[in-house]
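Feature request disguised as a bug report, sorry. It would help if multi-protein outputs had a clear separator. Right now it looks like this:
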Amino acid sequence: MFVIQRLPENRFKLICILLIGLSVAARANPSVPIAFSPEKIQLSNGRHFYLAEIRDARKNPGGEIGTVIGPSGPGSIGFEAPLHTVLRNFWGPSALKTDGAAEQIPLILTVNRYALSEKRNGPRSVSGQFDISLSLGWIRDGEMVRLNDLNAGVSYTRGIEAAYSHSRLVQKITADALRNIDKWFGANEGKNPGLVRRTKLTFPDKVFRETADTVFYSFDRKLNWSDFKARPSVRGQYAATVFASFGYEVDAKVNGNVLVLAIHVKVYTVKSMSWVLPEAKNDYTLAHEQTHFDIAKIAAENFRQQVAAEGLSVDDYDSEIQYRFIEAYRAMHDEQKRYDDQTNHGLNRAAQARWQEKVARQLLALQPQ
């Protein structure tokens, strides 16, 4: 027969509080405490990074790091302070932000694993394993850039009765982890796109060679009727049509900690998409079509200026350039339509003369002096 005695409510609450308190105290004070000695870790590449933040991503963050075997059985091992605080205090003085070093990467270290475990090998022997797993990253243009994962560990065997310095073992591997991070920066600086700090734009004067079907814009090369090879539209109401457009190419190259973006802007017309009626082959009609080509050149220059005026992000420069291109292309289309509407496709000679004068002035500002 079992007798269940009901405790008074206040006494029950007191026992619960005491049990919870004992549990918290056990977590905060491991049976085998670890303490690091002050150590200045020599780094060769500290000019490239500094320790900005440590994040503890372990399943059970805090100071405890595992279990060790003692003469009387297993016990917890760990730090009295949270691990991220311990590592910050230990690594931080060796990986400081230096004055005037704007190019230092503000490194964020995420601790994925920091664990020590032991097991008995026999009555008097214990084997142990200590492992560290870190993720390296930093915030660039508001986004986390993951650089690398670093894993380190050590196995050991010790006597169960003999004194053993777990603190010395853990400190050595922890110090070596920072040295390995330093070596990684030395090997990857100027090579790894993840370490690029900013972009630099250039607009080289790339010469695009004329092909059998494509004419690239040149101040020294005007359109001629041999550039209009398409079959004339039998239903069209116009005398001629030129396919005038522009585009760009981007060559990206890492140079030191800078991503150099060489943007090549090209203005062109496609012969197989341009046509003219036989009876309309005269200088006046050709001048009208040349002005369409000139408007495309001006639109391409506006695109170049808009891209150059804004800084491009390292991670999203391609879409940022594409956005500016679409905007400039839409503006070109509107200008081409405005030109044809106001000149009535060249039939209004006075308006045609005004447009040619306007476009000529804009082109003159673009030509190299």
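(second protein starts here, but nothing in the output says so)
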Amino acid sequence: MRTARTLPKKAFFIMILALILSACSEPSRVITQYPPYHLEISNPDEMLAQLERIPEKEPCDIAVAPIRRELVSKLGHSKKIPDSGESSLAENVRVAPLDESTVPFQGSFLSRPPKSPVRTGKWFASESSWQTLKVALEGGWADSEAPEPARSMVVSLLMNDLLRSMHGVNFGITPETIVSLKPVHAAVIACHNDPGCTTIALPAETRETADQIPMYRRLRTAVETAGTTIAKREAIAEFARRTSADVDRYLFHGAPKLKTETDRDRLMITLDLHPGVLNEPELKLLESTAEEVWKKTDVMLNLEWNSLATDLFSVLFHIELPGARPNVNRANRSINLYPGSNLRSIAHEIGHVLGFPDHYYTVWDEKECVYTQLTLDTDVMSDSITGSVTETEWKVLIESLTRSAP
């Protein structure tokens, strides 16, 4: 009869150590460390203070630092916002004269879109930098207050600088290079999920396209030049986090609960929103503006205001933060508008509530210290002022409703 044998103590501990090391070396199969693409801060003084505290600065940030300080200091109402969120700074907000280009809203104003916008169907590039903004604004400042467009431009540049230098946002993706995102991401994740992988298998064409994105070129080079297996695995993990963030940014994330019905051969899609503190004329204004964009011959989106439900997105108007970028905050389920926001931006933000990503691209030129924003004037998720809902977007939305149907 065979007797059971026990492992020697030394062999036993070696086996346990091997299992522990194997578990530690197995990377997470879900990469969730995404950088933000919008910051919940719009006060220029606070944004500048954060930039000043960054220890390692790029050459561009060192070069433009004096201009940033100068332009922020000239914003007469860039004061600290009370933590309570109350609009106690309303007296510091300059309300623009109401004319054909503005509409009164919550004690301040929204900008009207052009009556007959020109649409070309082509990508439009607009550049912005601290140097050109300083030149453009010279002679246009008042000592006590700054025009809302000027504040908006300053806040926009501060936001981009913070996202790039503090949060590592990849301002390098273009309409041409986005096609390489998924195959690059697939190859990087495949290597990341294989504990023994130290070389990312990128086909020559995919590699060439990926290298057009400066951050990807640096990340790939870091993997290839790392001197040890541990260093290579760390570089691959960073590459995986980066591609995961970028792919996630341009994905359709799925619509919330929507009601649908057919009325005279037209599909009617209803989105419930919470009215917040907006009054009935203001709600009607936002509703009619959004519904005019989100409709076509055979399908239409309806907005309904429900003040009883607690799990709906609500529209907030922040009178104390003129010039800030309209945005959707999924954490507190809010659509955020600001004095000076274009009225038509509500249609773009509704698109985010429905699950669509931004379709514009911001590209950073680290040699010239210039941001270039690429927008398509026929797509509301790219250009909220002139764009419409594209056929592709309608198809994605309707297919998502079909998949979610019981």
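Even a blank line would do. Unrelated, but nice: The chain has twelve helices and twelve strands.
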